Amino acid sequence: MAHPLSKCALLGGICVIATGGGAILLAPNQGGTQSPNISLSTQPTGSIHGYVAFIPDRLPPPTASGASIGSGTPIYVPDVQVTAKNVRTQVISAAAISDARGYFRSPGLPPGEYQLCVSGGGYLSTCEDQTVVVNSPVTVLNRIIPIRVASDAIVGTVTLADHRTPCFWFRPFNAQALLAKISGVDPTGQIVVGPVNGNVAGQYVLPKPSGIDALKLRGECDGGIVETMIPMRPGTVPQDLVLASSVPRIMSLEFSKDHATITRADPGDLIRVVVTANDSDGSDLHYKWTDDSGRELNLPDAPIVEWRLLNASALNTLHVQVSNGKGGFVAVSRSILTGPNGRSFGLRSHPDVAAGNPVPTPEPPFLGPVFGSTTDNSAVYQAATDAQPGGTRDTLDRWKTANGFNPNGDLASGEAMAIYFNNGDLKFGRDMHCRVTNTSTGATACYVSNFGRAGADDATTALTWATQYETSHQTTPSPTATVAMEYDRVAGVQFWAYGSDGKYLPKPTLDSQGPKPMPDICMACHQGHYSGHTGDKVQGAAFLPFDLDSFLDVNNTPLPMSAAVTPAVQEQFRLLNNMVIGTHPPNGIQQLVELWYPGGPSSPYARFVFNQGAAQLSGAPFARHENLYDSVVKVACRSCHVAIRGAEWNMFSQMNSNASFIQSLSCGPGRMMMPHAEVPWLRFWQEGLNSTLSAELNFSGGCPASHLASDGGRP
User: Fold this and answer.
1) What is the mean pLDDT of residues 655-675?
2) Is residue 239 within 8 Å of 321, Cβ to Cβ?
3) 714 lies in a domain?
4) Buried residues in 476-506 as b, exposed as e (16+ CB within 10 A)
5) Is 187 a domain residue?
6) Same domain, 75 and 216
């Protein structure tokens, strides 16, 4: 095998440098190709993103009524139709349907001014007086869209026996969400209203039928049923429903071979897997198994299964969901790396809770478009991006060839590359490659191979694997997954994912929740709009900048303090950030890169300036609130929000004017879904960032501990 330094002679412009930390990083000579600044053309359409909620009034306080919902508590409503009416043309858009979070995103809309209208069974059809201006690919509302019932309603929460765990379950690797279903039954046993779906907090709104003096309220959660009689008095009636069901507990998930427990395995091994679980109610348990390979495992509904590992040196991660058929669910994962350096990783619960303050439960589904969606358009998007079998991008090698990269990792003209551990969001060891593929149009492509276990503090192991992968000409060990991206100035950025075998992966795994569909998993942070229609691609997504402040080296040392950050290493990251600027990203990204490179990243050997914070932002936009930016935004929000036009969180005034909206998304009650990636979400709660956010923005009621699980959020 040729030594990596031979790449210098082969390419005559880019050399591989071995750092003292053991990671491979690259440095160009003075003749390296620079990426041009290309303006992004105006997007032809944009979408409106927001939430629909019913807000009851004239209710007693929750503690007085014994119910969980009081006056003014927003109940985010699923299954509501939302349309946008163009004020000038009076053209009404196709309807978007709110999901289990009350979240909706409109179809693509031409630039203009719009009224939003809502309707649904048992609700009044109304249009807002306030209008929304669409002038960018994504418009995020800073308010809730209210919906009113036609007469009165019954409202409440459906929980398990602990009075805390809502009837809701979603794991992307099991595809289907479980929602509470609530209906009203008359004395003859006939359903006279409903069923309606509950939301992610188990909350529901059931419009009241007329002409009935008493009603039996029925709540269903999986196979569990609870019923209670309620009087039909005037006004909104609060009524919680509690199922006689508990959450199962998992004690262990063990791997073995030939009757012996194993901590490593060979590619292609068939291993025995045993999950030990119990249910305090004595209910029969059911088991659903899946792994991150994208294969159909067809494993039985049983606690003991035989699992075939991938026939390659790769990280294999197995997930099991255990349920009692009555609304109680729990899921765990375990990983094993095959090959010469193979080893097993311990049990990983959902969420994986480290020491520190408690976290909310249930955890939100992370990494969906903007604020989340369970829609699976992965097959349609795969075809639209020519990644279907036989397409020009159906394998990683074919994608590399289409973009001028060498399949074996040898550096092509103008290619920049770096290996680092992204400690701030996904916690992967990353092997990143980027190049400008067309200097006339500014077209740019990047691919990043991920190593280690998502969310784990394993920088040394993950970066060692990434380095071995690069020095072996990208043959071994296999990455957990590789994500590829292409930018063009018409549509923005498109996304692909490939498994450890190099084949297209429609549902990659980037956190403990398991596989999630493309392109939503990428749009969560890169933003953009995707219609889901046949042939359509993502519009308006962006490349994200490289934040060296949040990276670790192979010795677990933050890069601001790392001896491995040589001028050569700095130059590679400058090239990468300059390519990002060359795609003309949103203003928030440009501002951030200019903060790191005060003279801009276009000059050769301009250095990244570490530890830049609120005090260095132009115009002092966080004066007297620097702690909000440095302790919360920079740590848990900035990575993704810099790509959201109008919600960059780069000014205190911008955040303060949206304080109630921020509080509803991050502090609940019932819907604590921000930050929207698992690692920053855990840091936000475990490290007390919620308290800092509340104090700085003067939240009414704060982020109270009563919103949190007493057991630290374990399922």
Assistant:
1) 77
2) no
3) no
4) bbbbbbbbbbbbbbebbbbbbbbbbebebbb
5) yes
6) yes
Question: Residue 243 and residue 224: Cα distance in Å, rounded?
Answer: 7
- Reported as a single tens digit per residue, the pLDDT across 566-612 is 888 999 999 999 999 999 998 889 999 999 998 889 998 899 998 88
Domain shared by 140 and 266, yes or no: no
Q: Are 674 and 665 spatial neighbours (Cβ–Cβ below 8 Å)?
A: yes
Tell me the DSSP string of 370-398: TT------HHHHHHHTT-STTSTTSBHHH
Phi-psi region of 381 (alpha: psi -120 to 50; beta: other; left: phi over 0): alpha
Domain CATH code at residue 72: 2.60.40.1120
Instruction: Return d(Cα 83, Cα 98) in angstroms, integer.
Output: 11
- Full domain range(s) for residue 294: 249-323+328-349
Do 548 and 483 belong to one domain? Answer: yes
Buried b (16+ CB within 10 A) or exposed e, 67-79: bbbbeebbbbbbb
- Asked whether residue 253 is assigned to any structural domain, the reply reads yes
pTM over 0.70: no
Measured CA to CA, the distance from residue 138 to residue 47 in angstroms comes to 5
Look at residue 547 in the predicted model and tell me its pLDDT: 93
Same domain, 215 and 314: no
Question: What is the structure's pLDDT at 89?
Answer: 93
C-alpha closest to that of 39 among 709, 675, 417, 582: 582
Q: Are residues 605 and 626 in the same domain?
A: no
- Residue 40 in any domain: the answer is no
Beta bridge partners of 642: none
Q: What is the DSSP string of 397-433?
A: HHHHHHTT--TT-PPPTT-EEEEEEETTTT--EEEEE
Q: What's the pLDDT band for 64 if we cut at 50, 70, 90?
A: very low
Distances from the Cα of 344 to the Cα of 42, 173, 337, angstroms? 49, 21, 6
One domain for residues 448 and 500: yes
Q: From residue 24, give the alpha-carbon distance in Å to each of 20, 104, 446, 574.
A: 10, 44, 17, 16
Burial of 561 (0-12, 13-18, 19+ CB in 10 A): exposed
The three-state secondary structure class of 695 is helix
Region for 37 from its dihedrals, namely left if φ exceeds 0, alpha if ψ lies in -120 to 50, beta otherwise: beta
Domain count, the chain: 4
- The more confident residue out of 486 and 36 is 486
**Whether residues 338 and 423 fall in one domain:** no
Tens digit of each residue's pLDDT (9 = 90 or more) over 364-419: 677 764 444 456 888 999 999 999 999 999 999 999 999 999 999 998 999 999 99
Residue with the two structure tokens 């046949």: 534
C-beta separation of 594 from 600 below 8 A: yes
Choose among 544, 557, 536: nearest CA to 643. 544
Contacts by residues 186-191 (CB-CB < 8 Å, ≥ 24 positions apart): 186/212, 186/215, 186/216, 187/214, 187/216
* CATH (domain of 273): 2.60.40
Q: Shortest CA distance to 427 belongs to which of 407, 401, 398, 456? A: 456
